[in-house]
């Protein structure tokens, strides 16, 4: 069991539902600033250090977490206090290990999603109306 | 005068006395109402008592039984329903301030089924806001505040069916209806020392119930014994035209008869060795002892393991996305800020950002897991583990930082829609209950009932009750 999984897992689903672990107030980075600063290390820039209680992520995953945080602030930023913005950033990081694990799990193209959908059918069949007799239609391409 | 002893009787005993007119449904209802009015507020157990409905239904039951029209084992039996099930004309708050004034003009199917068999609705049970669908950090994440555990009122009942657990444990009703998306029946049952059945997904209609996760929500009973759970389950199970996710008629319906079990083949039991990676010493001591007892009555039981994989991650993603979709208007309008818990106020924004491709991938992982579990159930009818690796936690605990442990079994059971039944299996040195859970293949609810009932026939933990002053 790796560290991320331990942090992720919770006693009941609410605690497990994506959002967990660590609580350390940190300054919320503005969207533009965070996406500008954080580039994958292949770009040659050093990523800033994160609080120790953030999950350890690859550079690419960190960028994704920051982008997620940025997207939230771009859409709803005026709603949050600075503490909430910081907490949102942490939550964006906490979510990332689950996404990374799911994406790395071997899936074949033919592995259908287990989404059960039962089409709605009529409860009682109404008598079918006689099809209108149509004039021979002109052939269409 | 109805004594506390009577109020703690299982449905199987109460129903005999009601059928033979030794107990009046009206007297029984009044006694539960009195106790609920007295103890309910101390435990934050109820969202609302419905004495008018209760007395009307109890009176009707008494008259019918008096005329010789006995409807069955739930006739005249008082119960509470989690406050996410619609009852016509009664506030249905979903435990959350933004819905505090919400009233529906129809009954949920589960409520309707219980009315038809003559059960008596005492009130709506308190719950975690939105059943925890927006995440929560503290037990107090509810309109009613933290539900207090009758075994120790400084401890929590667990959530999200928090009031349902407290009500049954405190003898405020004969049974209660709860719901589970991940852990919300099994955990309160374990913490509160009662029996709780999470039925197979699709066996109980969710029409009229708050939706949190369309592909994972289930409705089930908390009661005094596995047999009581079976009797309630038999009343609420069944196909429903109003809920397209219910199973077909022949797969959804459930009929329970204690005598049917006598001729049944003993279930093949698998004892899970990797359900919990971290185990609290006190809870483990209790569970190990209970497992020894179980082995006596299932001598062919043998150890087995759950498949390894990202099951918790998949379950979390699915619930997160479906919850964000279910409450999208709440999130987008900003009213989510009215929720009580600091995590509930913001978590939905994060879940809303999860990509569709990741959601579908989680569903693909679910499909793989279903095949793995089918293979496991080729060798076992029932798998068994502790319901939780700990006993009830302090009311003020931070659930994010103080209580963190992996729960692959909860993830697997709920991802695959498997039935589970948690029963009390002992008490810690601090007099807190510990639970044992039984799981089976989807649709094989009868197997978990049979196994749990066998355990309870040879133990008396389900008859223990807290000392409430």
How many strands of chain A? 0
Q: Which consecutive residue ranges of chain B, at least 5 long each, have pLDDT under 50? A: none
Cα distance spanning the termini of chain B: 19 Å
Q: Give me the strand/helix succession of chain A.
A: HHHHH
Largest sheet of chain A: none
Structural class of chain A: mainly alpha
Strand order of the largest sheet of chain B: 1-3-2-6-8-7-12-13-11-9-10
Give a quick set of tags describing it:
heterodimer, A: 141 residues, mainly alpha, 0% strand, extended, disordered N terminus, disordered C terminus, B: 469 residues, alpha/beta, Amidase signature (AS) enzymes, 11-stranded mixed sheet, two-stranded antiparallel ribbon, 16 helices, 37% helix, 14% strand, globular
Describe, in plain words, how this protein is organized in 3D.
- The complex is a heterodimer of chains A (141) and B (469).
- Chain A has a domain of 76 residues.
- In chain A, helix 3 runs antiparallel to helix 4.
- Chain A has five helices and no strands.
- Chain A has 141 residues and is mainly alpha-helical.
- By secondary structure, chain B is of the alpha/beta class.
- Chain B has a single domain, classed as Amidase signature (AS) domain (Amidase signature (AS) enzymes), CATH 3.90.1300.10.
- Helix content of chain B is 37%, strand content 14%.
- Chain B is built from 16 helices and 13 strands.
- In chain B, helix 3 runs antiparallel to helix 4.
- Chain B is globular and about 60 Å long.
- At the A-B interface, helix 1, helix 2, helix 4 and helix 5 of A face helix 11, helix 13, helix 14 and helix 15 of B.
How are the secondary structure elements laid out?
The complex is a heterodimer of chains A (141) and B (469).
Chain A: H1 3-8, H2 13-16, H3 31-37, H4 59-76, H5 82-104
Chain B: H1 4-7, H2 11-19, H3 25-43, E1 46-49, H4 51-66, E2 78-82, H5 109-116, E3 120-125, E4 148-149, E5 152-156, H6 162-169, E6 175-180, H7 186-192, E7 195-198, E8 218-223, H8 226-236, H9 249-252, E9 269-272, H10 281-297, E10 302-304, H11 311-326, H12 328-333, H13 347-351, H14 356-379, E11 382-386, H15 408-415, E12 420-427, E13 433-440, H16 445-457
Parallel strand pairs in B: 2-3, 2-6, 9-10, 9-11
Antiparallel strand pairs in B: 1-3, 4-5, 6-8, 7-8, 7-12, 11-13, 12-13
Helix pairs in contact in B: 3-4, 6-7, 8-16, 11-14, 11-15
